[in-house]
User: Which sequence fits this backbone?
């Protein structure tokens, strides 16, 4: 549903520190935009040329709507570019991965060591009969073996499907069965806030009705009380790789071969298996890690996502390793044992790039300024955000408290389906809180009406991508119909499912999913917009709004609000908050009801499930809730 709707303008613009907004940087961005406009093929050819191909591609792109092929007939293996290329070119003893546990446990892998571990597991998988094209489900805690498992699959051309370790047996079973996984890799447990949460028992339940599963590989972390291994189908991880050779020739993969399947977080409807390819995905992940997150040789790079999400796939594992970076990874929960843990880790490990999510930022805001202020955060040079709109208050806090009003805040818009960043503010570009930024060089995005025509600045519309890009999903697993929908809803564009508005400078503000639009008395209201207005009130920590059917206005807006510590719920505060929304967005966007709550239902990736709030409000069945946290 696309209708005209004008949003507020006049957001404050932040100019980055002169040290990063130098002439050379700005010129480089301009040059890259121009090079892409002039010759998209040559542009992507140059990027792909920085990576190794065992057989050079014959052609950069073939576009046969809605299917694109990238780097046609090229052959490579992403792990050659993530590992061998560095081992053989001066990064052999460079630290690839630093892992920190919940306690003081630390594990460090150089590129050589990481390559060795990947090869041993790859050989182990082969010994179990896993080969090219087979699906392997990875259900692991955030430990180095999770990353190693992904790379080991890629090494032998097996297709991994990582399932976030917080999912339950039903959701896991659904994904194993949908993917037809032959092997599941898991661990005895994950640690969360000092508690052991069993994983293997979840897998045991999930594989009961999963006939495709032949083996379960179990990483035993607790060696004092090791879990029992059932010899019929289970094997011990280190028992398996113990006798395995330390090298394993990388399987030659065609550029178009699938690399992985990832089921989307499913805020709406049933999970879809998004498929990404070996060649195109690799080029997109590499390009954006270097040019959006600005990963350089001496960086200590920390993306706080679980590798089990797309953000983890592209920006914990593949992107930074393709770029030869040093990746920091931790199993620790942000607020355990206290809300200072993250900032102490930044200080201790000298993190230079921090890539996180608005939901985490807002949580830290609630704990106050003291925690970050106690730590030396001066190693940081780039801050980045992903997952939902970074509302101006969260932006400001991140910029001021963590970035000390000097660092760039890169708000990256993209999706599981896009595989890589699409719209963002690049390091050095002026930042506008509330706006993600502009399409990066290589991406042709627009805001359009139902017919696919661009709408003028200040008018809301559907966010679309007009041209294929290398890391676009190559399909929805066993669901061509669903894949085609993405490319046939609005003209021949890729429809992202988000509503957006552009300003006069071409900056995109994401105003919510199109399914998160509320139509109130003929006006389209984006939930994200109202929520942002609500959270701009100093007493509000978090907010979610839904449309509630109304005989006159079609819908009215109901808001669920979590207050910051120290605020007392009551009529007076309600009126103050409503006044704030009215001042921000106007009367049309005013909630008719406010309910103060202690928590909001969220997906495990941190997205508010408005659908659940709505179902509860209306007393109807919420449908699939497999992605709900707790
Ligand atoms: C949806 C994709 C891609 C990484 C994690 C989520 C929302 C994502 C932003 C942003 C506003 C954002 C969109 C998008 N989203 N990043 N920077 N600003 N909205 O992946 O689960 O596939 O969700 O997340 O609604 O469509 P995902």
Assistant:
């Amino acid at each position: 549903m696309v209708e005209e709707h004008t949003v507020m303008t006049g957001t404050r613009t932040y100019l980055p520190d002169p040290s990063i907004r130098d002439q050379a940087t700005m010129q480089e961005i301009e040059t890259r935009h121009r090079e892409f406009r002039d010759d998209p093929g040559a542009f992507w050819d140059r990027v792909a040329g920085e990576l190794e191909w065992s057989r050079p591609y014959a052609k950069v792109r073939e576009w046969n709507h809605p299917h694109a092929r990238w780097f046609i007939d090229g052959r490579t293996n992403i792990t050659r570019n993530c590992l061998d290329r560095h081992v053989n070119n001066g990064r052999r003893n460079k630290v690839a991965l630093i892992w920190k546990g919940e306690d003081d446990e630390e594990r460090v892998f150089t590129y050589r060591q990481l390559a060795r571990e990947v090869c041993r597991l790859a050989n182990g998988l082969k010994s179990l009969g896993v080969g090219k094209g087979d699906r392997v489900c990875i259900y692991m805690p955030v430990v180095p073996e999770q990353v190693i498992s992904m790379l080991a699959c890629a090494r032998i051309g097996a297709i991994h499907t990582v399932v976030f370790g917080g999912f339950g047996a039903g959701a896991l079973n659904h994904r194993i069965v949908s993917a037809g996984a032959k092997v599941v890799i898991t661990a005895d447990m994950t640690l969360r806030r000092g508690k052991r949460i069993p994983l293997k028992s979840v897998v045991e339940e999930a594989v009961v009705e999963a006939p495709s599963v032949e083996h379960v590989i179990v990483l035993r972390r607790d060696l004092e009380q090791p879990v029992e291994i059932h010899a019929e189908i289970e094997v011990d991880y280190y028992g398996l790789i113990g006798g395995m050779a330390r090298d394993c020739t990388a399987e030659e993969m065609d550029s178009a071969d699938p690399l992985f399947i990832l089921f989307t977080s499913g805020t709406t409807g049933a999970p879809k298996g998004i498929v990404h390819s070996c060649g195109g995905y690799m080029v997109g992940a590499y390009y954006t890690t270097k040019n959006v997150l600005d990963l350089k040789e001496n960086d200590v790079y920390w993306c706080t996502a679980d590798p089990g999400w797309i953000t983890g796939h592209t920006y914990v594992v593949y992107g930074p390793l393709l770029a030869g970076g040093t990746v920091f990874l931790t199993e620790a929960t942000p607020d355990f044992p206290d809300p200072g843990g993250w900032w102490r880790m930044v200080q201790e490990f000298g993190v230079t790039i921090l890539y996180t999510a608005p939901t985490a930022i807002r949580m830290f805001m609630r704990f106050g300024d003291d925690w970050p202020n106690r730590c030396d955060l001066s190693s940081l040079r780039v801050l980045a955000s992903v997952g939902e709109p970074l509302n101006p208050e969260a932006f400001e806090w991140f910029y001021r408290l963590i970035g000390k009003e000097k660092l760039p805040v890169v708000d990256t818009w993209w999706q599981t389906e896009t595989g890589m960043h699409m719209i963002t503010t690049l390091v050095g570009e002026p930042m506008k809180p509330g706006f993600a930024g502009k399409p990066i060089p290589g991406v042709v995005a627009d805001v359009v009406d139902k017919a696919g025509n661009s709408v003028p600045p200040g008018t809301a519309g559907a966010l679309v991508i007009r041209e294929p890009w290398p890391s676009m999903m190559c399909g929805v697993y066993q669901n061509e119909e669903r894949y085609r929908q993405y490319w046939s809803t609005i003209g021949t564009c890729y429809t992202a499912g988000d509503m957006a508005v552009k300003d006069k400078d071409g900056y995109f503000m994401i105003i919510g999913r199109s399914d998160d639009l509320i139509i109130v008395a003929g006006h389209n209201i984006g939930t994200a917009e109202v929520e942002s207005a609500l959270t701009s009130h100093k007493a509000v920590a978090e907010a979610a709004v839904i449309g509630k059917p109304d005989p006159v206005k079609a819908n009215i807006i109901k808001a669920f609000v979590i207050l910051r510590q120290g605020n007392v719920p009551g009529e007076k505060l309600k009126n103050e908050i409503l006044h704030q929304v009215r001042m921000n967005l106007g009367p049309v966007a005013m909630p008719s009801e406010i309910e103060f709550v202690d928590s909001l239902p969220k997906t495990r990736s941190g997205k508010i499930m408005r659908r659940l709030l709505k179902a509860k409000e209306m007393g109807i069945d919420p449908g699939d809730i497999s992605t709900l946290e707790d």
